[in-house]
Amino acid sequence: MKRSKQIVVASVLTVVYCLQAIIRVSIALATQNQDAQDMGNSFLVVLLILFTVCLVSVYGVWQNQKWGKILVIVTLGLNALLALPGVIFAPTLLMKLDPGSGVIVAIVVTILLLQRTQQPVTA
Question: What distance in Å separates the CA atoms of residue 80 and residue 63, rounded to the nearest whole number?
Answer without folding.
Answer: 24
